[in-house]
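Input:
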Amino acid sequence: MGKDPARTEIPPGTLYMLILRSLARVGPMHGYGIAQHIQQLSEEVLQVEEGSLYPALQRMLIKGWVTADWAQSENNRRARYYRLTPAGKKQLNVEVSEFERVMRAVANVIQPA
Amino acid sequence: MKPGELWRRIGFLRRGRQFDAEMEEELRFHAAMKAAAYRADGADAREAHHAAMRRLGNPAELKEKSRDMWGWRWLEAFAQDSRYAFRVLRKSPAFTLIAVVSLALGIGANTVVFSVLNALVLKALPIADAARVYFVNNSGGPGQSFPNYRDIRDRNAVFESLFAYRVAMMSLDDDRGAHRVWGYLVTGNYFESLGIKPALGRFFTPAEDMHPNASPYAVISHACWRNRFGGDPQIAGKNIRINSHSYTVLGVAPREFHGTEDFYWSEIWVPMTMQPQIEGHSWLEDRYSRNSWVAGRLKPGVTVKQAEANLGMFAAQLAHDYTVNEGMRLTLSVPGMVGSAGREPTQAFAGGIMLLAALVLLAACANLASLLAARMADRSRDLAIRVSIGAGAGRIVRQLLTESLWIAMLGGAAGCALAVALLQLLSQWHAPLEFPVQFDVTPDWRVFLFACLAALATALLFGIGSARHAWKADPALHLKGTATPRSGRRWAARDILLPVQIALCCVLLTASLVAVRGLMRSFQTPLGFRPDGASVIGYDVGLAGYNEDQGRVFEQRALQAVAHLPGVESAAYSSSVPLSIDQSNTTVYSESTTDFRPKNAQAASFYKVAPGYFQTAGTRLAAGREFTPQDNPNSPRVAIVNQTFARSVTGAANAIGRRFRRGSGGPLFQIVAVVEDGKYETLTESPKPAVFFPILQDYSSTIVLMARSHRPEPELAAEMRDAIARLDSHLAVFGVGSLHQMLGLVYLPMHAAVVALGAFGVLALMLSITGIYGLAAYTVSRRVREIGIRVAIGARPAQVLRLIFARTGMLVAIGAAAGLALGIAGASVLASIVYQASSRDPLVIGAAVLAISCVGLAAAAGPARRALRIDPVQALRHE
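Output:
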């Protein structure tokens, strides 16, 4: 075990997009699974804080982007699985295109002249 | 917010508890997974568990954060505050009861008054687009002559349509016989202008305006159709008998429509062209008879100002064309209250009462605020503890406001229930009048909105005081038990609240005493006749189809029949009696006048009376003789006048033998007697001229037959009705009873004022008692220790009392003095409603002072006893 590698804050406003993308890619997952998934795919760069993850999931439930159901997990414990809804898929597209727009803009600015 | 989202948020409320459990489980699962991962990395079980828990941070906080996402935090906080508030309120039931009851009374009184105001002023007539319909006033009065109406209707530029109407009494036959009913004579465009759809059949059209006496049609009210014709679905087209003539029913008015006056509920409408047949004589072509009321619908986009400007030009034209119209002004007012003549005083009255009601509520607020302030001092220790363990000031203030909000809500709900019950009674109440007066004051949404706002406003008003107190509290001082008012600031908020409250109560008390005193006096005011012991019965032989000769014969026979009833001392008849609904004016000129323009004329109330009328009515003759049977059509024209008439028309106090002229260029009458002045139209009028003509010389088909006796009036009146029925069973009679009952309408506003003001006075007294009691009890409880010490070192009871009550007494005295002064200043408003109400009446002032003193003493008695019973030993041990 040992200490966690240096944590990088997830850029503000992208957590929803990361969660939505993970669910779209893998299918229904529990909170822990989502955090692990993001961490692994980002090669341990992006650390999902539990303190942000669970409130964010609640917010996504309110918005109707995901639904939650209890089910048996891989180690036979009850876990809450989050599933993407059609509204969530739409939202993912919106967030991704918005993110790409911003990234292009940032790239333009920092490009050496 | 999208609807789906709102729905999910509301759904969350249902599973609030489940949420917590699920969240906990989810976090436990997360920690377990994390721990498992750490173990896989090689940590031992305990270390892994601790690391996972550390990673998770504070699970309670995380749970709260997730929960807050749903946006119900405020509601949860409110529910929590409310639970606490109810616990606090339950702990001091006496305080809660006083607070809720005084608020219930305050809000209840306001809701009732507002509801009446709503019915009087705010509710429009149930007609289409009522905002465009206006009443046309003629020089401040309602009456307009019919030829003038026709001219205005045909030549004005601002009204889409203009109609005329007149309150009329008719005799209507149904299968139970003839009944006197009240209705309207209306022009053919009446219903069309109002935009009303018939419940059945059809309404009049302008075709009904064409030829006099050629449109025997009628429209009946929904109630009339139901009650008199059994709701016959085939009623349209059937014939009914009105005044013994056949009329065809065209249709039935909708249920909610009772005519164009708010409180007069018409049963029947007949075309104006039938006026000669309905009323026996025609004034439709007479510019001197201002017998019709005029209203109309403005063209779209025309403002009241534009309309009045146009009518002003037109009035000048009419005045130029006809001298009778000299000085005519045409103004508009909202319809429903006999034009501006009725609306303005009614509005002023309702507004005045509303103001008093607001004072009651304000006094209740001041009362509660001072009670709460007193309680706050006792709770400051409790609050200080809460502050010192970390409750923010905002949290405490919110808690206190929640408490006052719930007190206000409870009080408001109780007040509303009280008001609804009272209003229901009032709406069902039939004024004891020979006139279909009906007050529809059932509360509508405006009333409930008002009650809600009133409750909220009071909650804020009295809650803010105590909240401010908490805001400024210094927990350290309170916990040490040494928190005393800072030196230099000797006046606490409650020291100002009590005098304010007492002053308000004094104003209310003075007002109600003035009103009651006025009523007492008005029963003693000389009416110019003695209603006690007089029984009356009214009828109109014209309605039963009698001509003048038949009518005269019938009137003599009726008089004989009644005069011979047992116990009757004298009997006589007249066209009407003073102060009843049916009042007429005539124009008179002095004998020397040759220029008959309106400025030289005088208006006088007139009555046609039979021989023996003055003896029967109990009117004193100052000089001269009563009419005799010899004053008949074959003898010279004579008249009897009152003293004011004698002075103002003939210019001499002893006017016997002098003559005056009736009507422009009309005949001369010789005065044979002068009678005492009286009241003719209202109780509050200043002395006005009145003239009596012999009914034998001037026939009237409308008769009030009066008998004086020592027997109970209802008993005799019933016998009189039987006697009339034996002569003609088909004749509709009205006003059977005592003469007092016939005068009911003139006493109605005064009775209403006295009931309303009396209720306010009682409320004010109750509020004063609770206010003074609260402060006195609080003062004693705060100073138990001090009193104990003083008693221990030898203070006498009088000294103890002075110590405690000197300040309270002074505050009450200041408040009472200010209130009395205000009451006296403000009560002049009352004088316009309540006859002979004078606030400078020493009796009123004396009674108000006495009442407040008694209330003060009574309220302070309990706490005083407690102060005297303080045992120094116990008191000193107490803290």
